Amino acid sequence: MPLRGSKPSRLHTLTPPTIKAASTHVDFTLTNVSLAFANSLRRTILSEVPTMAIDLVEVEANTSVLPDEFIAHRLGLVPLNSKSIEDVLYTRDCDCDQYCEHCSVTLTLRAKCTGDEVMKVYARDLVVGEPRPNKWVGNPVITDKSGLGVVICKLRKGQEVRMKCVAKKGIAKEHAKWAPTSAVGFEYDPHNKLKHLDYWYEEDPAREWPKSKNAEWEDPPQEDLPFDYNATPSQFYVSIESVGNLEPDGVVQQGIKVLQQKLAAVLQELTGGDDGNRNGDMNVDGFVDGPRSPDAMNGGADQGYTTPFVTGGATSAWGGGATPYGATPYGQSGWGN
To answer: In a designed cystine with 315, which of 41, 143, 320, 321 is the match (CB 3.0 to 4.6 A)?
Structure first.
């Protein structure tokens, strides 16, 4: 996975990228992988990298013009630092009743306007409580030069807000507020040698469809060469923009880690491993079956779809028994009830 800076070379091992320029962007190239693998990594980065976000808001006072639900939604979208998020437990894995310092971070918001001018409440006004899993997690991400952060609400004279916010660990598959990235650019075959795109044009497609910046990393097609119907893409250009809760190279590394965990879980199921630990629990071989949101279903009551051969008859190459997701749609004793 070479970085942009020199002509990409074909590598058989993936090396973690580093930040190219800004602290929220990273560009890298995947080589010698299939389109399915590259797209799987892209989707994993988008939706399954765990981060911290405000998930519970207890309103003590709100006399602003915005309703409680509106402010709570805006608070949930404030990016929070998720460095070393492995120190934070999922709420469902914690022994507490609702939340504690092991599975959450508490933030308080107290603001009151006493002057005649409109007062803006910023992310910097969120005060992180102690104790918490580590010294980074839960801090509001502030990237603007003025050091204020995003605007949460505005207050006029006499108006105030007092709220207690509880941030929890989750993934973007459950809600976009847990998304580690604001954009993931993904491109291959910039010269369209494989003819996967059919450009609409009026006169000249080369003039009406300018080449992307990634076209300089590959040789243009030669007109006299015959079309290769067996050719497949093997080089992919990825551009990631982080929202600030994780460093962009950390987002990529976490995405690879989660993808490895999911593949390990599939292999364990196919090889007849223990099926009692799912939805992110640590299994007996030390694999984690992937992240999930704090409000996901409890795994203990889920017994798995029943295969047609549970009660007798031939079994598949991987054995009979229950699959991971509960009973069959047609009953507990097989498909033919």
So the answer is: 320
Enter the tokens of residue 246.
């994780």
Token code pair at residue 51: 């981060």
299, burial (CB in 10 Å: exposed 0-12, middle 13-18, buried 19+): middle
pTM summary value: 0.70
Amino acid at 109: L
Phi/psi for 206 (5° steps) reads -65, -35
The 3-state secondary structure of 263-327 reads HHHHHHHHCCCCCCCCCCCECCCCCECCCCCCCCCCHHHCCCCECCCCCCCCCCCCCCCECCCCC
CA angle 172, 174, 175 (to 5 degrees): 60
Alpha-carbon gap, residue 31 to 3, rounded angstroms: 11
The pair phi, psi for residue 323, each rounded to 5°, is -90, 175
Verify cis geometry, omega within 30 degrees of 0, for the bond prior to 131.
yes
Q: What separation in angstroms does the CA of 245 have from each of 85, 175, 248, 249, 334?
A: 10, 15, 9, 12, 47
What pLDDT sits at residue 290?
56
- Helical residues (DSSP H) of the chain, grouped into ranges: 35-47, 68-76, 205-208, 248-270
Provide the Cα torsion 24, 151, 90, 261; round to 10°.
-20
Mean pLDDT over 256-279 rounds to: 80
Position 196 scores a pLDDT of: 87
